[in-house]
Write a structure and sequence with these properties.
By secondary structure, the protein is mostly beta strands. It is built from 4 helices and 23 strands. The protein folds into 3 domains: 114 residues, Sandwich (Immunoglobulin-like); 94 residues, Immunoglobulin-like, CATH 2.60.40; 83 residues, Sandwich (Immunoglobulin-like), CATH 2.60.40.10.
Length: 362
């Protein structure tokens, strides 16, 4: 009996305990607590390169948060810079010496994105490059969340600064049958007004009229470039940059003005050679060597009744073979023949050396 009563008391105690927990859990609900924003990891592949009067920074947006979850694409970015004469112990000194120079909000960062790769230019200008010539610019980047929390700096990227070559000038184009030849005048100063040191060469950029991107087509060492990869009838644009040599370092200069060239084929093919005329009863047969012209449209055959006289064209349209038969001849008469080559642009060569034949009398 005592054992049964004890069991009943135990059950009652358990019931009241769970009842109190239930009522406590159903009390007044507090305001919802927003989730703590996750922190994007720091960029790991920051690089810096001087191009003309600016330093171009490139890095990949962090793919993960610090807790290993996938990072959102939109991030706010802070860019830090430090000029130094002694690039030793950068990691120890950068945090206290560097200054923030750019803050790029999420909605602006997309302007500098190509997929997940950021390319951001830090414009220096000729005056600042003159002041910082020979010094090292060190950069670091932070990726921040909505609460301005960051996991720390990216890797540090350092580049030694020099005055940039001034643009090349007086660029001209000369078109030949096989090449478009560019000439320009070498710069003598930098954009900072200082004398230009030794030139490492030039970079030539080209784009077709239908293209949007400029492409490097050559890195010549002289102020001349022959472009042989072209088509007549198309328009090409060219730009040139000088590259200065500072010890072991090279600095690319500013773009020249663009030069636009529309290529017109005004070059006739070479005249046919070794024309031979053989007369037989009632006709004269001609043969000649093929002309080496990539855009050959065919050959035109001419005839004259007198040596050095006026030639009449016998072929209404260009022929592609190196032979021709002339049946419109009279017995006992002499005829004089010449052949020209015609290209697809309508340019006609000079006449070949004449060949004469006398038709046998009947």
């Amino acid at each position: 009996m005592l054992l049964s009563a004890h069991r009943n008391v135990s059950r009652l105690s358990a019931f009241f305990f769970f009842l109190s927990v239930f009522f406590l859990s159903c009390g007044v609900v507090g305001p919802p607590v927003p989730p703590t924003p996750k922190i994007p990891g720091p960029p790991q592949d920051l690089v810096a390169e001087q191009r003309g009067e600016q330093v171009v920074l490139r890095w990949t947006l962090p793919a993960l948060h610090t807790d290993g979850t996938r990072a959102a694409r939109g991030q706010r970015v802070e860019i830090y810079r430090w000029f130094t004469d002694s690039p030793a112990n950068l990691n120890e000194r950068f945090g206290t010496e560097a200054q923030i120079v750019y803050v790029v909000p999420e909605d602006v960062l997309g302007q500098f994105l190509q997929e997940d790769r950021v390319e951001f230019a830090d414009p220096m200008g000729g005056r600042q490059l003159k002041e910082q010539a020979g010094r090292t610019a060190v950069y670091g980047v932070k990726a921040l969340n909505q609460k301005d929390e960051a996991a720390g700096f990216s890797n540090l990227a350092a580049v030694r600064l020099y005055p940039a070559p001034a643009p090349v000038s007086e660029m001209e184009a000369r078109v030949t049958e096989r090449a478009l030849v560019l000439h320009w005048r070498a710069p003598e100063e930098t954009t900072s007004g200082t004398p230009l040191p030794a030139l490492a060469g030039y970079r030539v950029f080209r784009k077709r009229q239908a293209e949007e991107e400029w492409k490097v087509v050559a890195t010549p060492l002289t102020s001349e470039y022959a472009d042989t990869d072209f088509r007549f009838g198309e328009t090409y644009q060219y730009r040139v940059r000088a590259v200065a040599q500072y010890g072991n370092d090279q600095v690319e200069g500013l773009d020249s003005t663009s030069l636009s060239v529309t290529l017109q084929d005004v070059f006739a093919p070479p005249a046919p050679e070794n024309l031979v005329a053989i007369a037989s009863r009632g006709r004269v047969d001609l043969t000649w060597d093929a002309t080496t012209a990539a855009d050959l449209a065919g050959y035109l055959v001419y005839r004259s009744a007198q040596p050095g006289g006026e030639y009449q064209r016998l072929t209404a349209e260009p022929i592609l073979v190196q032979s021709f038969g002339d049946p419109a001849v009279e017995p006992g008469k002499a005829y004089y023949y010449a052949v020209t080559a015609l290209d697809r642009a309508g340019n006609e060569s000079a006449r070949s050396a004449p060949a004469a034949a006398t038709v046998p009398a009947e």
